[in-house]
Each structure stands twice: as C-alpha cells, then as structure tokens.
Amino acid sequence: MKGPTLSHASYIHGTSPDEQARLAGLNRLTNADFVAFVDPRPRDRVLEIGCGLGLLAREVAGRLGPGGSVAGVELRPEQIEAGARLAKTAGGAPGPVPVRLVVGDARALPFCDASFDLVYCRYLLEHVADPARVLRESLRVLVPGGRLRVQENDITLVRLDPPCPAFERVWELFAELQRRLGGDALVGRRLFALLRRAGFESVELALAPEVHWHGSPRHEPWVRNLMGNVGGARSGLVGAGLASEREVDAALAELEGLIHEPDASATFSWNRAAARRPA
Question: How far apart are alpha carbons 12 and 178 in whole angstroms?
C-alpha cells in the first residue's frame, strides 16, 4: 500500500503528510516480518522497487555486511525526501551498508542487466498499470539465479468482527476506484501466474497473516491503518461518484468503534511470492 513507480496508473493514496505518516506506521507494523521473508545475505546487492520513504530499505541494509549494498527506486521524489527527513529525525549512527535511493520508473529501471542478487517489492504491483512489465524488468536486473521476493494485497481478505457493513461497502468501492485508476486491489491472488509469465522459475507462494484482537498490541494500529486507507481515498471515492461523504464517515465511525469494542478482532493475509531468475 505505497507509492507507484508507473506514471500510467494514478496512486490511490496520494503523498500528503498524513499519508506519509500512515506509511511510516505501516512500516513499523510490518517491516521486521517482511525482512525475515526477504532473507538478505551479507554480501547481497539488493534492489527495492517502489521504495517509498526508504524505511524498509534501511532495515534491509542493517542485515547486510561489508560488500553488500542496497538501492531503492521510487517515482516520486517527495517520498524519498520525506523518508530522508524521517531517517534524520530518528537519529542513530549510520549502518555499515549505504542505502542509495533514486528517482526512476519501474518500467525502465535505471540499472544495468544482472546488477542485483536480490530484488523485492511490496505493496507496489497493485498500483501499476502493467505489473507484468515491472516483473520483466525485475528479471532483467537480477543475476542468473538471483532471487525475487514480492508481497501484495488482495483486499477481499480483510475480516472484521463484529461486522462493519458500512466499511465493507466502502472497501468494495475502494477496490473499484483503484481499478478505475489503473491498479488492481486484488493482484495478490495473481502472483503465481504473473511471475511465471514474466520468466521466473521456482515460484513459491505463501500467506502472511495479520491477526489482531482488542487488547493485543497491534490491534489499534492495524485498524487505524485501515482508517487511513479509507480516509486517504475519500476525495477520490466522492469525486468519482462511488461513495458519498456520509458513507465514508460511516465507514470510519465503524472502524473507530472496532478499536474500542472489547470483543473486536481483525484479520488479514498478505500474499507473498518467492522466485528465481533462471540460471
């Protein structure tokens, strides 16, 4: 759920300060588990496509040793600039591996063939008009035998209890808005076919669950992330005639109630894929 690297699809979330704050919060919730999935090796040359604020790229760099490197490519310079400010605010000594973030387009990555041992992207393919083209570029910049890691959305996998019918209605319209903008909120279910058709081999799929309940430490942050998604798409939903202001407000009110409901729970599953470029 972050910024695109293709100009032919409009990003449903935008890049406002509120959205950048939501992204930073989502990074805090999900980065550690995703870095474990990516499993970088000490001397890997790593590329993140759609690096957004660069927060994840910096965490991956922390897993590398001398000889390793991390690059990130992002379409919108304001995302990279905001991430640099966040990193500066966080302080701390720089890691042993530098992180190089560049402005670029995932359809034509600004790197030579066979430049990386490991390429990953997350919350990206849902926002692009041609995910197959992005994956072919990923294949091109990987060395023979190089590894790809992908995590994506299928937003139909959100489950809330007690039920939130106003949210569920707006959530369906959210997916329709994303489709009209050139993206695909359900792309996670298509990862196997997309990677195989792009030329990858040894494609393996997995689900990464998000399971939260009232009183668990990540319940409120997770539900507020959902609220940020809905609130951030408000103008698009209303402007497209898909939802009214009143409907969006009702969806947000239900989610706010879910935070405080003692019997509430929220579950979701990220779609993951691991693959290799043929040797």
Answer: 6
d(CA 110, CA 62) in angstroms, rounded, equals 24
147: which strand partners? 118, 276
**What single-letter DSSP state applies at residue 163?**
-
Query: What domains does the chain contain, in order, with CATH numbers?
Result: 17-272 (3.40.50.150)
> Are 134 and 108 spatial neighbours (Cβ–Cβ below 8 Å)?
no
Read off the DSSP letter of residue 105.
B
Tokens of 271: 């779609």
pLDDT tens readout for residues 32-72: 999 999 999 999 999 999 998 888 999 999 999 999 999 99
The whole-angstrom separation of Cα 204 and Cα 11 is 28
CA 199 to chain centre: 23
